[in-house]
Automatic annotation (TrEMBL):
Name of the protein described by the UniProt record: Sugar kinase
Family (UniProt): Belongs to the carbohydrate kinase PfkB family.
Location of the Carbohydrate kinase PfkB domain: 11-306
Keyword Ribonucleoprotein among record annotations: no
Keywords: Kinase, Transferase
Pfam family of the protein (one): PfkB
Gene3D superfamilies documented for this protein: 3.40.1190.20
Molecular function terms from GO: kinase activity
Taxonomic source organism: Paenibacillus dokdonensis
Domain of life of the organism encoding this protein: Bacteria
Length: 322
């Protein structure tokens, strides 16, 4: 009996650059570290893994080098239950790398991604039917920043999704190591106009809109058609939907071990909430919980919880509140 492929299509499709991640295991910093921990990271693959762990079908694609780091990343993402059938292992360019050090409580990252396989992605190679068969397309400003051809991929993917009625989620993920603020501003604000869900941080918005006051940020966002989810408020996330501003409090973390990946965890929780049929505010609440759980362990994606773990956390909180 032949299965209906539409039933097996990913509910979430996302794409971008995932890189090998090496972290110095010495508090004196990278220069004096004798050992490095090997993993990988990438905003989009982190989100895909998070959504898959929360019980939904997720697909990630991008270009990796056909090298040991690339194959490690490919197998690891696939091993998390994420569909990687559209990912490419390129023989023409290497997998990008990032190296992290933690000194005096401060984390620094050094990127080696110029001319990487991911930076050579081309819009004409996108599988339109793959995007059209999903429910949500999630893209980030990181992919838009790595090369002109990658930016073209983002814009083309958003256009494909919108024409098919697929919702578009966009996290600007402003990275000033990749481009200047002036370069980023025009592109990211243009992409925000194509999104159904815009997921920036409050500090990012103040830079992009060149304003200081929160009220000025909200005024700018009110001109967008997108539902805006603003992370990084005072112990809360803002939801600006149809002119109504709602505050959704954070979940208190018992301990904070590593803040890296918190934003991706939030996005994964928010998207999974939408896929579960939750309202925007309910989905943001789930995103807040995911962010809180991620920062209590170390790793870009390793700490992303399963739906069973999230349910246990919610049941415990509800029991305490009663």
């Amino acid at each position: 009996m032949q299965q209906d492929t539409a039933l097996l299509a990913p509910e979430l499709v996302t794409f971008g650059e995932s890189m090998g991640l090496f972290t110095a295991q010495d508090s004196r910093g990278l220069e004096y570290a004798s050992t490095l921990n090997k993993s990988f990271g990438g905003a989009e693959s982190n989100v895909a893994i998070g959504v898959a762990r929360l019980g939904h079908r997720a697909g990630w694609f991008g270009a990796l080098g056909s090298d040991p780091i690339g194959t490690m990343i490919y197998k690891a993402i696939r091993g998390e239950g994420v569909d990687v059938s559209r990912a490419v292992l390129s023989t023409d360019a290497p997998t990008g790398l990032m190296i992290r050090e933690n000194t005096a409580g401060k984390s620094s990252v050094y990127y080696y991604r110029k001319a990487s396989a991911a930076s050579q992605m081309k819009a004409e190679n996108l599988d339109a039917s793959y995007i059209q068969s999903s429910k949500i397309l999630h893209v980030t400003g990181i992919t838009a920043a790595i090369s002109p051809s990658a930016l073209a991929c983002v814009e083309r993917a958003m256009d494909i999704a919108r024409s098919a009625g697929v919702k578009v989620s966009f996290d600007p993920n402003l990275r000033l190591k990749l481009w200047t603020l002036e370069e980023a501003r025009g592109v990211l604000l243009r992409l925000a106009e194509k999104a159904d869900y815009f997921l920036p941080g409050l500090d990012e918005l103040k830079l992009l809109y060149d304003v200081e006051e929160d009220e000025a940020v909200f005024a700018e966002l009110s001109r967008l058609n997108a539902v805006s989810i603003i992370k990084g408020g005072p112990e809360l996330t803002y939801v600006l939907e149809h002119g109504t501003l709602t505050e959704v409090p954070y979940f208190k973390a018992d301990q904070v071990l590593d803040t890296v990946g918190a934003g991706d965890g939030f996005c994964a929780g928010f998207i999974a909430g939408l896929l579960k049929g939750q309202t925007t505010v309910e989905a943001v609440r789930l995103g807040n919980l995911m962010g809180s759980m991620v920062i209590q362990a170390v790793g870009d994606w390793e700490a992303l919880p399963t739906w069973k773990q999230v349910e246990a956390k919610l049941e415990r909180k509800m029991h305490i509140e009663r």
